[in-house]
Amino acid sequence: MASGVAISDEVIECYNQIKVRYQGSEEKDRFKLVVMRLSENQKSIIVDHEASLKIKDVEKEDNVFKKIVGVLPEKDCRYALYDCTYETTESLKEDLVFIMWAPDDAPLKNKMIYASSKGALRSKLPGLKIEWQVNDPADKEQSALVEKLGGRAKVKYLEKKTV
């Protein structure tokens, strides 16, 4: 907690929920994307329920990746956990991707607080293998995430779309 920002218990609860796999009707109520933001007083990291998405929110989407990137603000920072489904040359995979969303147009103070709080947040979310940092428009392209997942030579589909 280098920045002095606390992590709400709800963030940990949502992290534990997004990791769990459900069968049947409960599957649609599982998180696809958990978005986190600073509270209004900038003293804690909280879940942004308005931006977070469940499986049922994206199941009819033609382009799930665009929907996910589209809920993140253009001029402010966010953290997110994205339950990413992709297919490699070897198998179908699901990995939890930690997103550090800090666009160039975000206020400098916010970028500093988010950057200095990231380590404390990550330490509360063990087992995350993939981090995708987004700062400029090129970073939010599908190709940037595909590189984090293993590159175009290895990854063939992202959210059932050819890469």
Secondary structure layout plus pairing:
Elements: E1 6-7, H1 9-19, E2 31-38, E3 44-47, E4 53-54, H2 55-58, H3 64-70, E5 78-88, E6 92-101, H4 108-123, E7 130-134, H5 142-149, E8 155-158, E9 161-162
Describe the structure.
The protein is an alpha+beta fold. The protein is built from five helices and nine strands. It has helices at residues 9-19, 55-58, 64-70, 108-123, 142-149, and strands at residues 6-7, 31-38, 44-47, 53-54, 78-88, 92-101, 130-134, 155-158, 161-162. Strands 1, 2, 3, 4, 5, 6, 7, 8 and 9 form a nine-stranded mixed sheet that branches. The chain is globular and about 45 Å long. 23% of the residues are buried.
Summarize the structure.
The chain is α+β, with helices and mostly antiparallel strands. The protein has helices spanning 9-19, 55-58, 64-70, 108-123, 142-149; strands at residues 6-7, 31-38, 44-47, 53-54, 78-88, 92-101, 130-134, 155-158, 161-162.
Count of distinct strands: 9
Helix content: 25-40%
Distance between the termini: 38 Å
How would you characterize the largest beta sheet?
Answer: 9 strands, mixed
Low-confidence region ranges: none
Q: What is the general shape?
A: globular
Write out key terms for the chains shown.
163 residues; single chain; 9 strands; alpha+beta
